[in-house]
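Lab manual, section 2.4: Encoding a predicted structure.

Procedure: take the sequence of the chain (93 residues), apply the prediction step described in section 2.3, and record the output as structure tokens. A sample record is shown.
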Amino acid sequence: MASRLADLIRKARRLAAERDRLIEALAADWTRALRGQGLTAEDLEELWGGLTEDAVRRGQPADSKWTAQAWRAEAQEVIARVRAKVEAALGER
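Recorded output:
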């Protein structure tokens, strides 16, 4: 049982690290795409809201083991993390 628990912990850490790398890459892509576009705070608010809605609506596969509520929470958290990184990078200009 202890070895199974250790395996699950390693897997969770690996998946979390991969998720963090993907968020970093996505934030870098969005930063490059948005830099110099002259978007207002309202424009960005609309963008992040739309991305969140789209991720919630389209992202969950039909055969997913996630509940709709869990999927929504995960999508909101990921978009919030990407948003924070992008807005911080754009603010450093």
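Check your result against the sample. The chain has one domain: 21-91.
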